[in-house]
Write a sequence for this structure.
């Protein structure tokens, strides 16, 4: 059941009053119409004036706060100013339309350059921990990092290329729109069912904003209809619905329409100035990256992103010297939040495009150029920016690239110069990776740990409870498999129980591809602790030494069995142990604990893509895709492959289709939020089953549960670069702006060929 | 207005306003939450149900238009504990990730197999192009429909 | 367009719902409510428009209970297609696929199966979108629209059905009853092509062609272009350029070029710049002409 399916008796339906202007000040607001209709209303004048950041994944010193629950100074079209709740949605809609607002319009900016020159700042002050910071030139935060002598590095290089890359501003288009159902409790607390990737952070944020004691806030885990990073932060419907529920003393449901959801969040839009230098022999010597993030009207996680972008960049290929300058700039647009890969798809696109160009200059095959420079086993890797570093312990990049190259006949691929016809084919490659969680041996600026609870039931089955969300990637199934494997029980014996903040210990969030790696790690830890208890009790029953006992799975009886090996009649099933423990009052066979991964090993992916470009219409078709992934031990092959399938579709869409554009006349999204004008591929737009091959490298990650790593984001990251390189192979044209649409392709072909 | 609709084989009477949508009648009136709101304008297919045996988008149909007609939703597919072969195939082939688009896809696929028991991959893709999925890239969904069609032949 | 008035969860306005059982009843209601009424056929255009507050009718007249409005019949004048005939019915109709295939192809290109199970040809036309796929096909078929009201029936050739300003010539007290579509003469080849950003999209450009050969020379040629001007239209200059000519590559190329020179997109159309439509319309015209010519040649044998 999804949050948007959830229903409670006496529940009210809520609607949000959204700013029609990109930047304005509310001069007056008249809600008398709402009260006449018998509905409840909250405005920015009565919601808490607590400034917050809706994402609690980073430590406070890295968390910039510039949000209010409702605002009297809206900074983008669609920003919530007030909200109503009524018996029916129709009544709520009428109540909404009865609100009269007078606005004073302010200057607005829709790109980072313009914004930095604006007279009216978007935010005058924001907060960091207890400090109030003044914002200059609409720059929300900055980061600069230098390692090694970059000047020297470029001097050493025989070839230096610098290019500017502009990404698109995508919309997650997760199928379930953002929703919160909130029930006020008699004790002054609230119970919340919402679209979230983290029930504990949701609870903490509501506590921070409303002051309700943490224990009186219960956030219940429900199924999540897709997210891709859009619910790492607590979505606006949650605090708004809490405000309405507290005021009306009735349960309140606030579920965004698709057009509201489209105005609620989007990906980070980036401009990169990337410079790489290499010696004749193909060794990279230095790199410089200048990043400007266009983050929209609020920070959700811009500062951590600045760190992550440089981290992703320097962990792709060995750069002896590197320098980075990054800034996040406010604009009067929908706020940006993490979107699968969190900067990695964007920077990987730029790097993979530049690497191909550099390889061409050097006269080295692009694939060989990658193999010469990639960061792999034994190398230092920045898992989530400069504060999360570890040494890579497992790496399948060579296997992926070499096998893929063979399958697609890489060295016999087309040459762009040779092609003149209407239809031109090209083969491109790209590689990438993503972390598995943000673990590390020391604390960093990112909170990353989770916990789990496991108990053995009286019949030998197990109950497993974790706060970690599964948004359909098969994460919890993987945990169950890990537990079943460790405790030698049939998979069906492990029950994944529903959870809420009261019955679970803290888990930071399902993101950063940490579901299996970290979450599974926690599952494994408690499984081992439960095993200790099982041994102890079995030893009592068998009069044996706990450490000497052997455990195995008896498929026929459907039980885990503990035995003193070789000795007759000295074995007991889990059911017998648990039953005995109960009858003899020995106590529970259970464990609850937290776990932090001491590293965040990268999972690696590589794509080889063949495209066909119709040079008359500019349309690009996928002809063949070979995708290889190194995810350590593959716990769930079907679902892991499913991540690749989804990542491919999303990456293809990122490269060729998606963008949200703004109308300069009124500052609103050009499509007004309606997704008939935001296309993603249909079943007919992607390639046939036979043309897609997915394979997994044979690797084992020593720090992962049973050797496993993540896959969710690595599945997406290299796709844009790969497709762009394939298009270049077909046409001999490189594109420095996404998306690469038919319009742009035709324009470029005209410029090139007339 | 008084209407009578046969939902999943059971005749039901309702008193609805003309502007009530069929989708909301099913979800709020009958608590059949399988059909989903995904976009409200016919772009995503998450609200797909059968009206007189045809796959349609319930977010664009007024409840009054279903008067005297038969509506079938995902909840009516399984026979007690026994899942429809399409449902089973979706589970087995890993065609369900977040699950939000699943009821819509299954109802569309059911309509496809009712009309064309032996669809080619191209026919499957064409028939389902009005259903949107952001998680799976459609690969396992197509496989699931093929598998269900195969099973029906056996 | 006020952002706070959109609500795609529900139909956010109230209206009176009428379900007339006869044509007489229907036109009577239209006479009475006229400007305040909207016709409900499949609902796939009307309901989203109400949700987006583009239309706010006080009366909704549902024509689906009038049996004679949904039909496909062969008559001496051609195919009679009722306005309420579903696009899916047209797509699958043996008569259409045999005698008017270009219309079947156009219907099939619209939306998805779910949309075509409700959407009607009358709705597709009366929605008056410049990209209406069936409109482009009907243009090359020289279809005639039969418009009905209490004042009686009138026939409107499809070329005059759209007023060039985003509306049809159907007055508020009128309704489209049916289309009379002359069957294509023996040996006519036809084709419909459409391109959007994805395969589930409205047209950025669509083209329909019907072409008949007489001894390797073009005896009759009809070319219609859609989504490139306020309404689809016949590109007569291109047709004249081909009439009587031999079907060479150059001739087809020349005709396609003429088609591309006749685009008239509105300034405020932001889907694609005029240059893109110019290039693409030429390509599609060439494809449609080539496809129709091949079929014509095949039928001539």
């Amino acid at each position: 059941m999804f949050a948007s399916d959830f229903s409670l008796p006496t529940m009210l339906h809520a609607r949000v009053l959204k700013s029609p202007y990109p930047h304005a000040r509310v001069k007056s607001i008249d809600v008398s119409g709402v009260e006449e209709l018998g509905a409840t209303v909250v405005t920015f004048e009565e919601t808490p004036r607590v400034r917050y950041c809706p994402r609690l994944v980073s430590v406070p010193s890295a968390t910039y706060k510039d949000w209010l629950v409702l605002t009297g100074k809206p900074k983008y079209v669609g920003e919530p100013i007030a909200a109503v709740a009524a018996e029916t949605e129709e009544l709520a809609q009428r109540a909404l339309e009865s609100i009269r607002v007078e606005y004073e319009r302010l200057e607005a900016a829709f790109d980072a350059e313009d914004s930095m020159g604006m007279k009216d700042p978007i935010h005058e002050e924001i907060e960091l921990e207890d400090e109030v910071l003044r914002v200059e030139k609409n720059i929300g935060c900055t980061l600069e990092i230098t390692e090694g002598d970059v000047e020297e590095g470029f001097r050493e290089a025989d070839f230096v290329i610098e290019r500017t890359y502009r990404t698109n501003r995508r919309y997650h288009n997760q199928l379930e729109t953002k929703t919160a159902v909130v029930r006020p409790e008699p004790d002054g607390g609230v119970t919340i069912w919402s679209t979230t990737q983290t029930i504990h952070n949701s609870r903490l944020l509501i506590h921070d904003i409303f002051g309700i004691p943490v224990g009186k806030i219960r956030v219940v885990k429900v199924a999540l209809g897709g997210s891709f990073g859009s619910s790492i932060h607590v979505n606006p419907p949650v605090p708004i619905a809490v405000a309405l529920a507290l005021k009306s003393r009735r349960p309140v449901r606030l579920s965004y329409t698709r057009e509201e959801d489209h105005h609620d969040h989007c990906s980070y839009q980036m401009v990169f100035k990337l410079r790489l230098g290499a010696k004749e022999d193909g060794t990279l010597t230095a790199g410089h990256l200048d990043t400007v993030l266009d983050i929209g009207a609020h920070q959700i996680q811009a500062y951590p992103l600045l760190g992550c972008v440089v981290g992703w960049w320097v962990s792709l290929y060995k750069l002896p010297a590197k320098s980075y300058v990054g800034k996040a700039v406010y604009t009067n647009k929908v706020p940006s939040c993490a979107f699968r890969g969190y900067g990695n798809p964007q920077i990987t696109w730029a790097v993979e495009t530049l690497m191909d160009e550099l390889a061409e200059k050097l006269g080295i095959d692009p694939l060989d150029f990658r193999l010469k420079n990639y960061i792999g086993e034994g190398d230092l890797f920045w898992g989530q920016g400069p504060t999360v570093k570890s040494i890579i312990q497992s790496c399948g990049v060579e296997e992926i690239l070499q096998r893929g190259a063979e399958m697609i006949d890489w060295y016999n691929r087309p040459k762009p110069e040779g092609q003149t016809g209407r239809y031109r084919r090209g083969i491109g490659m790209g590689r990438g990776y993503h972390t598995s969680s943000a673990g590390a041996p020391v604390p960093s600026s990112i909170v990353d740990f989770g916990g789990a609870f496991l108990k053995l039931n009286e019949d030998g089955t197990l109950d497993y409870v974790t706060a970690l969300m599964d948004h359909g990637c098969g994460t919890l199934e993987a945990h169950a498999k890990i537990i079943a494997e460790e405790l030698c029980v049939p998979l069906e014996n492990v029950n994944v129980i529903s959870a809420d903040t009261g019955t679970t210990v803290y888990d930071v969030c399902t993101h950063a591809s940490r579901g299996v790696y970290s979450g599974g790690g926690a599952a494994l830890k408690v499984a081992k602790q439960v095993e200790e208890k099982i041994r102890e009790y079995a030893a009592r029953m068998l009069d044996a030494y706990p450490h000497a006992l052997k455990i195995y799975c008896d498929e026929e009886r459907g039980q885990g069995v503990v035995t003193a090996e070789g000795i007759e009649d000295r074995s007991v099933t889990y059911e017998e142990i648990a039953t005995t423990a109960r009858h003899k009052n020995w106590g529970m066979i259970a464990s609850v604990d937290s776990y932090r991964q001491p590293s965040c090993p990268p999972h690696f992916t590589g794509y080889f893509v063949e495209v066909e470009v119709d040079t008359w219409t500019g349309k690009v078709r996928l002809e063949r895709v070979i995708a290889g992934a190194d995810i350590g031990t593959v716990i769930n092959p079907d679902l892991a492959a499913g991540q690749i399938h989804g990542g491919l579709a999303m990456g293809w869409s990122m490269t060729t289709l998606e963008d949200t554009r703004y109308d300069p006349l009124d500052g609103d999204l050009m499509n007004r939020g309606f997704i008939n004008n935001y296309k993603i591929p249909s079943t007919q737009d992607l390639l046939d089953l036979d043309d897609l091959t997915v394979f997994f490298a044979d690797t084992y990650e020593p720090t992962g549960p049973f050797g496993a790593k993540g896959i969710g984001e690595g599945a997406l990251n290299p796709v844009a670069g790969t497709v762009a390189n394939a298009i270049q192979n077909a046409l001999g044209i490189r594109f420095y702006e996404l998306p690469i649409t038919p319009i742009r392709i035709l324009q470029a072909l005209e410029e090139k060929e007339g | 207005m008084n209407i009578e609709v046969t939902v999943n084989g059971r005749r039901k009477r309702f008193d609805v306003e003309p502007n009530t949508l069929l989708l909301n009648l099913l979800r709020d009136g009958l608590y059949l939450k399988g059909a989903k709101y995904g976009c409200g304008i016919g772009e995503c297919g998450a609200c797909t149900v059968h009206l007189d045996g045809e796959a349609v988008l319930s977010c664009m149909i007024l409840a009054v238009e279903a008067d005297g007609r038969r509506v079938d939703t995902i909840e009516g597919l399984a026979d007690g504990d026994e899942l429809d072969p399409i449902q089973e195939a979706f589970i087995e082939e890993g065609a369900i990730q977040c699950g939000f688009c699943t009821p819509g896809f299954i109802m569309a696929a059911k309509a496809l197999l009712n009309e064309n028991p032996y669809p080619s991959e191209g026919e499957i893709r064409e028939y389902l192009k009005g259903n949107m999925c952001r998680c799976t890239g459609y690969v396992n969904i197509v496989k699931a429909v093929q598998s269900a069609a195969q099973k029906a032949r056996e | 367009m006020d952002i706070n008035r959109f609500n795609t969860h529900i139909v956010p306005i109230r209206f009176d719902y009428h379900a007339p059982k006869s044509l007489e009843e229907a036109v009577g209601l239209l006479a009475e409510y006229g400007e305040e009424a909207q016709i409900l056929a499949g609902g796939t255009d009307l309901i989203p428009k109400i949700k987006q507050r583009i239309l706010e009718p006080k009366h909704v007249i549902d024509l689906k209970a009038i049996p004679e409005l949904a039909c496909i019949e062969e008559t001496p004048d051609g195919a009679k297609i009722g306005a309420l005939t579903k696009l899916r019915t047209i797509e699958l109709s043996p008569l259409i696929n045999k005698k008017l295939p270009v219309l079947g192809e156009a219907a099939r290109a619209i939306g998805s199966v779910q949309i075509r199970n409700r959407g009607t040809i009358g709705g597709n036309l009366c929605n008056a979108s410049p990209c209406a796929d069936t409109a482009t096909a009907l243009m090359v078929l020289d279809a005639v629209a039969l418009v009905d009201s209490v004042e009686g029936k009138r026939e409107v050739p499809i070329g005059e059905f759209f007023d060039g300003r985003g509306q049809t010539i159907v007055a508020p007290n009128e309704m489209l009853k049916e289309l009379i579509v002359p069957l294509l003469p023996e040996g006519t080849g036809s084709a419909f092509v459409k391109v959007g950003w994805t395969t589930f999209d409205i047209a950025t450009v669509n083209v329909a062609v019907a072409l008949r050969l007489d001894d390797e020379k073009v005896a009759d040629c009809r070319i219609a272009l859609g989504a490139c001007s306020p309404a689809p239209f016949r590109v007569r200059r291109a047709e004249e350029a081909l009439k009587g000519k031999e079907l060479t590559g150059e001739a087809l190329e020349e005709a396609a070029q003429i088609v591309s020179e006749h685009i008239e997109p509105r300034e405020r159309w932001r889907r694609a710049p005029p240059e893109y439509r110019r290039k693409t319309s030429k390509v599609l015209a060439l494809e449609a002409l080539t496809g129709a010519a091949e079929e014509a040649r095949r039928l001539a044998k």
